[in-house]
Amino acid sequence: MRRKLVIGNWKMNGNRAANSTLLSGILAGLNDFGADCAVCVPAPYLAQCESQLQGSAVAWGAQDLSVHASGAYTGEVAAAMLVDFGCRYVLCGHSERRAYHYESNELVAQKARAALAAGLTPVVCVGETLDQREAGETAAVIGAQLQAVLDVLENSELIKIVVAYEPVWAIGTGKTATPQIAQEAHALLRAQLAAKDAVAAASMQILYGGSMKPENAKELMVQPDIDGGLIGGAALKAADFLGIIQAV
């Protein structure tokens, strides 16, 4: 069985005092629920996570990275810098990066490659907007987003990535895809992965990232192709984050 993975995406939230309280609450309530967990935090707080989480069962990571290793790229953060702070994960192609920073499928693919080259686990995010869903374009959109990454990976690298399906229409809107809708999308993604390498696809984690909460986590997690969650708002409250982990 694939081990479940729950990743909290703090987005652009937090301060040192609030972060300390949140991380302490997660550590205090964390038991062996049979899931791996991590938090992806704003870059200024990576040192705080390293200090507070080192040696614990909670991994940490970043929300973005540069395709460049170093150089005159003001404002960018290189993969090696993330490694320097003990990161394990990095998000690649979150819907907000695609929408607000115009990240193309090809750029996301290059970011995933940069992460892998540094020994990080890229969490490759894919998902469709409400207009795309209503136009019946879900399969084409998420298929193209994932294929761009698959095109630059060797088969042996597949098992080193995590995929996250985040229906854009269900992020921060209070709407959640039904378990059946989410499962259909996850099954499409796993079939696409299997077309490249069936063995690797069977072992890969595909997370659901559309407003998962303690109240709906269990019914989502029991779906055969949903291997955990990429959690937004609920990751900012220790009780909610732990409730989702416990739902495993």
- Helix and strand run: EHEHEHEHHEHHEHHEHEH
Strand order of the largest sheet: 7-6-5-4-3-2-1-8
Q: What is the rounded Rg?
A: 17 Å
Low-confidence stretches: none
- Average pLDDT score: 96
Overall shape: globular
Instruction: Report the total helices.
Output: 11
How far apart are the first and last residues' alpha carbons, in Å? 13 Å
Q: In percent, how much strand structure appears in the residues?
A: 15-25%
Number of strands: 8
Largest sheet: 8 strands, parallel
Written account of the structure:
- It is a single chain.
- By secondary structure, this protein is an alpha/beta fold.
- 43% of the residues lie in helices and 15% in strands.
- It is built from eleven helices and eight strands.
- An eight-stranded parallel sheet has the order 7-6-5-4-3-2-1-8.
- The mean pLDDT is 96.
Helix and strand layout, with pairings?
Layout lengths: L3 E6 L6 H14 L5 E6 L5 H8 L4 E5 L16 H6 L4 E4 L2 H6 L4 H13 L3 E6 L3 H5 L3 H13 L11 E4 L13 H18 L1 H6 L2 E3 L5 H8 L6 E4 L6 H9 L2
Parallel strand pairs: 1-2, 1-8, 2-3, 3-4, 4-5, 5-6, 6-7
Helix pairs in contact: 1-2, 1-11, 5-7, 7-8, 10-11
